[in-house]
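README: folding subset

This subset contains proteins for which both the sequence and a predicted structure token string are available. Records are stored as plain text. Below is the entry for Hydroxymethylpyrimidine/phosphomethylpyrimidine kinase (267 residues), shown exactly as it appears on disk.
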Amino acid sequence: MTSMKTGLTIAGSDCSGGAGIQADIKTMTTNGVYAMSAITALTAQNTTGVRDILEVSPQFLKEQLDCIFTDIRPDAVKIGMVSSTELIEVIAGALRQYEAVHIVVDPVMVATSGARLIREEAICAMQEKLFKIAEVITPNIPEAELLSGIEIQTQKDMEKAAEMIGRQFGCSVLLKGGHQRQDANDLLWKKDGAMRWFYGTRIENPNTHGTGCTLSSAIAANLAKEFELEESVKRAKQYLSDALEFKLDLGAGSGPMNHAFAWNKNE
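--- output ---
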């Protein structure tokens, strides 16, 4: 009999397959981890935008989490889109109850367009209930500006914001620099105060739907495989770069990546 490391994604469904639960499952699978999911919402969306969202009830989300943790225990947990306080409280309660480990929170709060994706009271609940049990959170620059209250223009600004957020919530912070025009450098601020930059070359690819979901899921997958946080981030960033480098072109808008790029290269 063969055992396998396991990962759980708690997030919304993207029916077009590029982000959310679908991207998370593809990412965990191609990173060698058995993937499970607890769905927080159904979305009707494609590469051109989101048309509608249908949230699950708090009770149904709790049932999903109970089913997972009492049968196939996750070695790591990734949390993505959760837009209501009630759902956040259910998630936090279940993760504490089952003493979940290697929790990665992608604080999906601000869309690439700048639009808010979460209610104000839910942001407070996310900070108090989820950040404080997370091993690492992965905000992008607009989200880090929202969390830290400072404008981020330079690498020094990124360092200051990451430290402020990390010290406030007691977790490591991977501040993603993809919103900067010149580069794709990410900063990891660790709970012990150490900082590490992960330098990347910007890949000219307009199809970036699901990059945040993919990166956080890849980090969780590598943590599940017992890599240290820095190594998990390094591997996840390389995986994301390779997926973008494949330059898949689907849909009329900002299209998805090919999460299975390695399989296609071998054909």
